[in-house]
Amino acid sequence: MSPWLNYKKVKVMKRIKSINANLLLLLLFISFKVSAAVLVTDVRCENQQNPLGIDKLQPSFNWKISSDQRGTFQKAYQIMVASSLQKLNEGKADYWDSQKIESGSNTFIVYKGKALGSASKYYWKVKIWNQAGKATSWSEPAYFVTGIFNQNEWNNAKWVAYAEMPDSLRVVPGQGGSEREAKLGLKAKKRSIVPYFRKAFMSNKDIEEAFVFVSGLGQYELNINGTKTGNYFLTPGWTQYTKVCFYNTYDVTNQLRKGENVIGAIVGNGFFYVNRERYRKTNIAFGYPMLRLKMIIQFKDGTQQEIVSGADWKTTPSPITFSSIYGGEDYDANMEQPGWNAPGFKDAQWNKVQVIKGPGGIMEAQKDPCLQVMNTFLPQKITHPKAGFYVCDFGQNASGIIHFKVKGKKGETIKITPAELIGEDSLANQTASGKPYYYYYTLKGEGIEEWEPKFTYYGFRYAQIEGAVPESQSKGQDKAVIQEIKFLHTRNSAPIVGSFECSNPLFNKIFDLINWAMKSNLASVTTDCPHREKLGWLEVTHLVGSSIKYNYDILNYFNKIIEDMINGQTSEGLVPDYVPEYNTSDGGFRDSPEWGSSCILVPWYVYKWYGDKAALSKSYDMMQRYAAYLGSKAKDNILSYGLGDWFDLGPARPGPSQLTPMSLTATSIFYYDVDVLSKVADVLGKDEDAKKYSELAEQLKSSFNKKFFNSDTKVYGSGSQTSYSMPLYFGMVEPQYRKAVNENLVKSIRASGNALTAGDIGFRYLVRALEEGGASDLLYEMNNQDNVPGYGYQIKHGATALTESWPALKYVSNNHMMLGHLMEWFYSGLGGIKQQDEDVGFQKILIEPQFIKGIDWVKSSYNSINGNIVVKWKKQNSELFLDITVPANSSAIVVLPVSNSDLIKEGESILPKNMIVKSSYAGEKEVSLSILSGKYRFRMPYSNIQL
Predict the structure, then answer these.
(1) Cβ neighbours of residue 523 under 8 Å, at least 6 residues apart?
(2) Counting CB atoms within 10 angstroms of each CB, which of 179, 244, 423, 827 has the fewest?
């Protein structure tokens, strides 16, 4: 007998505040004896597991609930926070005991205990009461370490440097282009010293715990007693340094010892200083490399020692003789000083540091995930296209660095040039990715030498070697021998939360193609490419954000980008096309509404995806100012500037929009901004603002339709894919015309041979409009081909990461994620994992898989902030099987394209009638099911599916 027969219906709730207000969500309470364990898992503080460096006075907590019993949900919770693990285990919550709080919320629970102190470690645990009123056991103890709460606590830790840059040489913002460079004179001209810093100190007591808080600008690498601290790359994340300087926190308890200890650091340029040598997107000079550090040691006797950066530190040039985020890195191994970062080293010849004023930004703990080495690739083949040149093919285009082992004579030099492509001469081709970029290594001639760059990275697949010979081809050669060479893929370490696979091999390759572009461009910002620009172009954050969030936990990452936008907004209200705005640009490359609109759309999406209301609160002023800015640029409610549908596929070389009126994309996104802003105001309880923006949205819609819609032909704008898709997705098409406009869009695509022509802006909305318009079969056909420009075409022509242009042109980037919107459809369309209209944080899930002819099975999962959602389906013999997992504390509406619900079975039983509900999500030939948390298997005759 189905477990559903044990359920008792208690009430029906009507979904409100929605155009689709006729949805009835049937909530069923379970009447049973609790027999299965309910556990509290994945406990987090500020959405991090055991985080270091929380600088919020009232951090938030969240957790997930694990249960194999259907219908499990939370009715209450209790949190305990203590100053020691022993006290926590004894139930002595000396900082906060929330007591039992009646609430179903398991995310963004704000700390309300005793005031926390800086640089302190706190332990916490949580338990819940389930729907039957039964308490779980306590979660496993977790902890968080606070950062430095008050800016004045940094006063005794000074910014130190090898040399201070005179104000007359500073270049902020950066300048690019030959005309602007010519006006710089001596600015950003010379190489900076990439310095070592060193501080020795004594600790003669037994150490309880020790924490380091450190910032090195541009980026640093920290060592304690000769060992690297942490496993991060390019820390801290890049910011607008005149406003914010990130610091990182480390637990170094196990690196310290009784007696002499040594702190060692090396600091590179990053985006802090880019000089006019080799390739550069910008010439920028906030200052020369600088360091700020604070270490707090707690001894077992209760006393404390503090070590801070200051005038008593020593410095000297490191072996890194050139470092540029854009140009590469040089290293002279003959300048090495063995033991420089360990006790016993004699630093009498080193210089005293200069104590300097710093860049001006406040000190703030980095909350988004740091970059790390995430994958390693070995050469798939090594070619010898020309005398003295060897080219390694690693088989994958990605972001990263080279690591090698070499043996040779003192003074021999090796040059390694990474590249996305190879030219007709089979040598490295950096034409479209920024040249020259290379690594230059000088040998010391002592045994096997091992090296990798520290302060730069590039997007590449190939590595060209000059001045050395791969070991496999070294016979008879009198040159340095590369004994090993590896490609280390570096990216933001945001956790993976999604998976997708289907029966279509091409679609699985497309998934990988897009995913590698995502991996390569998730840095400290969402970069457009990992080589030529490395800038945080904003359109991808809102356009590709939904695709990214299915694969990676980007809550903290996108919150960092929100803060970049807040810091980057101008006094006029403009949010530039990219932030931080390291380089000055002109025209649409600085001010295009489709880019700047991220400042309104991204906070809204973060709220919808995760339930983070604070993202809206901190962004609201920015949102209003940007909407007002767009209004000031509009004429009769129409915006007519920007880049439009960037890189659409037209007759000319790709660039600004060719097929769609620029004013159509700009004005429609303006409408969408204002419509979203009205919803934000409503969520924040700002009723007058909500009304004002709602009325403005209606005015914008009316003006837009008057200008761009032909009511006789039912054509929008130029009739391009983008012209139809944006008003369809934004809800700008009046109800009486919607069906005809949808049909025109579909007809136009079929008339073109199912070709993709929409660009950076429009393609996301094309995917959404087709899926929501019931045309997923057309999406399948458009992308299940390789004979016209598109995903399959790129793969057929050798791409391993998504390229900047549909036809994979060699003169533009071959690693861009801006056209990666099909990823969203893999999850939301084929997998059917979505949100109900009024949902935030995936607690009210909509599961609506598209059963497409040509696809026999799909496996998809998304580990949301509330728990793991799984949807799998397969066609087997004459039946279709659908397996669904809904996480605890959630419910779902399942929409199935069937005409006869009597033919659906749940497990081996007839589908319970109380599972079938009416909903606005189901069409005439569809059935809606209402389910609670748990695992389900539905089966039905394949002939019952409406395709």
Answers:
(1) 234, 371, 399, 491, 492, 530, 534
(2) 179
pLDDT tens digits along 181-193: 889 999 999 999 9
Domain harbouring 925, CATH code: 2.60.420.10
**Cβ partners under 8 Å of residue 692, min gap 6:** 678, 681
Q: Which letter, b or e, does each residue of 385-397 get, where b requires 16 or more Cβ atoms within 10 Å of its Cβ?
A: eeeebbbbebebb
Give the whole-angstrom CA distance, residue 541 versus residue 526.
7
Contacts of 824 (CB under 8 A, 6+ apart): 546, 547, 550, 764, 767, 768
Residue at which a domain ends, from 366, 400, 433: 366
- Rounded distance between C-alpha atoms, residue 544 and residue 495, angstroms: 17
Both 521 and 479 in one domain: the answer is: no
Q: Which pTM does this prediction carry? A: 0.95
> Does 23 map to a domain?
no
Going from the C-alpha of 440 to that of each of 321, 335, 412, 428, 454, the distances in angstroms are 10, 14, 11, 15, 13
For strands 273-274 and 413-419, give the pairing.
Answer: unpaired
Task: Say yes or no: 691 and 778 in one domain.
Answer: yes
Domain boundary among 102, 121, 146: 146
Burial 769-780 (b: 16+ CB within 10 A, else e): bbbbbebbbbbb
Same domain, yes or no, for 650 and 579? yes
CATH number of the domain within which 93 lies: 2.60.40.10
Identify the DSSP state of 667.
Answer: H
**Number of structural domains found in the chain:** 5
The DSSP output letter for 737 is H
Does a structural domain hold residue 17? no
- Neighbouring CB atoms inside 10 A of 703's CB total 17
* Segment 349-361, tens digit of pLDDT: 999 999 999 999 9
Same domain, 741 and 808: yes
Assigned domain for 47 exists: yes
Pair 434, 472 in one domain: yes
d(CA 288, CA 486): 31
487 and 512 housed in the same domain = no
In 3D space, the residue among 513, 518, 463, 511 whose CA is nearest the CA of residue 488 turns out to be 463
In a domain, 308, yes or no: yes
- Output phi, psi for 587, to 5 deg: 55, -140
Query: Do 865 and 842 meet the contact criterion of CB atoms below 8 Å apart?
Result: yes
Position 36 pLDDT exceeds 80: no
Q: Is residue 680 classed exposed, middle or buried when 0-12, 13-18 and 19+ CB atoms within 10 A define those classes?
A: buried
Short-list 428, 414, 518, CA closest to 466: 414
Q: Which domain holds residue 271?
A: 151-366
441/611 Cα distance (integer angstroms): 49
Give, in order, the Cα–Cα distances in Å from 399 to each of 217, 420, 451, 522. 22, 10, 18, 9
Least confident of 120-124, 616-620, 711-715, 907-911: 907-911
Q: Which residue has the tokens 């390739």?
A: 279
